[in-house]
Amino acid sequence: MPEPFPPSKPTLAVWKFASCDGCQLSLLDCEDELLAVAGSMQIAHFLEMSSASVDGPYDLSLVEGSITTAADVERIHRIRDDSARLVTIGACATAGGVQALRNFGDVAEFADVVYASPQYIDTLGTSTPISAHVPVDFELRGCPIDRRQLIEVITAFLAGRTPNIPNTSVCTECKRRGLTCVMVADGTPCLGPVTHAGCGALCPAHSRGCYGCFGPTPDPNIASLAGWLRRCGMDEEAVGRVFSTFNVAAPGFEEGRRHGR
Amino acid sequence: MAGDAPDGDAAAERRQLTVRALARVEGEGRLDVAVRNGSVESAQLNIYEPPRFFEAFLRGRDFREPPDLTSRICGICPVAYQVSACNALEQACGASVDRRVVELRRLLYCGEWIASHALHIYFLHAPDFLGAPDSVALARSQRGAVERGLALKKAGNAILETVGGRPIHPVNVRVGGFYRAPTRTDLAPLAETLRRALDDAIETVRWVAGFEFPDVRLESTLMALHHPERYAIEDGDIRTSGGGGFPVADFDDHVVEYHVPHSTALHARLDGERYLTGPLARYTLHHEQLSATAREAATAAGLDTECRNPFRSIVVRAVEVVYAVDEALRLIEAYERPEPPATPVTARAAVGRGVSEAPRGLLYHRYHLAANGLIESANIVPPTAQNQDAIEADLADRIGEHLDLDDAALTALCERTIRNHDPCISCATHFLDLRVVRR
């Protein structure tokens, strides 16, 4: 269990690497809690929100985005050195994000396709999670994260306790909501059995299969689920593609990604 | 550019400023400015977005995947990506979408306009006019205003959540329509929320109209979508301020992207000219299509039949929020649940182009599909790439008028100038280094 923060107002910093801004926006989307959070912590560095910034050290750093440039490798080390606690928020920071699709292709060729003058582009051949570079105190999953879970994590760190974030699959949330299983009832392909809980079974509630945006559960049984996906009519390439999205580089989805290759 | 500066006495005139990070925008930028003989030689907005290669890895994906995949380009305007992608892919496949689906999409998009505009107005932009670093500091003196902003943003997010499943990266959008269409009962609580939001939106226009605006005029061509029946949001053809226009099918003949060494974001030109998309363009070209309430709010706020002052974009955004709330209420009132929620779409070998009006400007998608439904190539032209030349020209003008300012004041003016355009850079780090080289 982490030590509680000092009695004076703890400082919060929010950092961004390669990403869409969506996870840090989740903090601004806490419309009912934002002013309370700002009252209980000093927001010391949060560029999307404030042009006032104070130097570290910081009590809590939230990090969004993946590492894709040499400069970012150095920057994440500086941030770690400056932060008593470091929490990653979102699929990019915890698994490399959708941009980690580059890890399985040829980045030079990608740059040729997208940019008329690829020589101007400075990038690494990989997109890696924060934990590949520095120790991380807690990883909050999701593409994007769930804002209620974000408030839980901040509250837990303020109180000096472990965040109460379930480690189960989307299926458990789906059952708890009393939803009919879209795969069993309708034959809709669904990654719920192997996907980390957190969204509240949003996709099955909208009559579609889970597409895995919270990444893998611990020890996902990919082989078994792949059999079910094929029975739902997916060919091998399609099975490979459903695992190749926002958490493509998460170790638990590796076996799924190799389908059709 | 610093390396071009002359040595010796002349070097004493050279100013290199390394300033605090550019805040309250989405993304990382630096500005390089060169001044010669007291006039601005160049002002380059250097966008450091680490490339994420979306267009490259869309190749080989199924035609049903872009709404989910491309929404991850931007957490602030994911619906814009989903809708432009759907428009392009439905066009490629020759699918005609149910009118009721179009209306529901427009309702979802209104939610994004309200949430994104409220975010920009209250959190990113208003602090510039009120001398505050952020909305939390602003809340100390104007708690009611900030709470109004939060309530307005929450109303927009409530639409996104009810229709799309969640505010960021909605899960309910698919090529052809939706996975599940809400019932009239699902939408009923939104109407309650939106009626309160309409008062907040009108009050927002009054609030921002009272700010002090520098008197400037932006000369770039303006470009926006046009729909014959309504203020264009989720679809339309293209109109420009010169009286020109063209169908979306001809977009690539008119808009050409090019790459400059100083930015990882591509630039774009319209028939060889710089141009601006976004609220100033939409308002100037189509304000007469706004609802009566939004037009009244605009008139009361002192807006004319055109608005070319980027500092006043905050007023135009506020007027567009009134419109989006009004329009969302109308759409909910007239709502007929589409049944089925999506038109079946069958892939074919074709090229499809789709556009829509993201809160900060026009967003274009183009896909080449193979007969098996896999994507052969993709091209996405976001608003910030299109606006970058116009933003740089605007910066050069502001700097040229204020060379007498000291470094801190000039930098602050440059940051404001950039924020006026609500650039959505979505990139890694946010550092703005302003380097002024005077020679």
Question: What is the strand and helix layout of this fold?
Answer:
The complex is a heterodimer of chains A (261) and B (439).
Chain A: E1 11-16, H1 22-28, H2 34-40, E2 42-46, E3 58-64, H3 70-82, E4 83-89, H4 91-95, H5 107-114, E5 138-140, H6 147-159, H7 170-176, H8 182-186, H9 202-205, H10 222-231, H11 236-242, H12 254-257
Parallel strand pairs in A: 1-2, 1-3, 3-4, 4-5
Chain B: E1 29-36, E2 39-47, H1 54-57, H2 66-71, H3 78-92, H4 99-130, H5 135-141, H6 143-164, E3 173-174, E4 177-178, H7 184-209, E5 221-226, E6 237-240, E7 245-246, H8 251-254, E8 255-258, E9 267-270, E10 275-276, H9 279-286, H10 292-300, H11 313-333, E11 350-358, E12 361-369, E13 375-381, H12 383-401, H13 407-420, E14 434-438
Parallel strand pairs in B: 1-14, 5-10
Antiparallel strand pairs in B: 1-2, 3-4, 5-6, 6-7, 8-9, 11-12, 12-13
Helix pairs in contact in B: 3-4, 4-6, 4-11, 5-6, 6-7, 7-11, 10-11, 12-13
Helical residue percent of chain B? 40-55%
Helix content of chain A: 25-40%
Distance between the termini of chain B: 11 Å
- Strand tally of chain A: 5
* Shape, per Cα inertia axes of chain B: globular
> Based on DSSP secondary structure assignment, what is the total number of beta strands of chain B?
14
Largest sheet of chain A: 5 strands, parallel
Q: How much is the radius of gyration of chain A in Å? A: 19 Å
The largest beta-sheet of chain B arranges its strands as 7-6-5-10
Shape summary of chain A? globular
What is the spatial order of strands in the main beta sheet of chain A? 2-1-3-4-5
Helical stretch count of chain A? 12
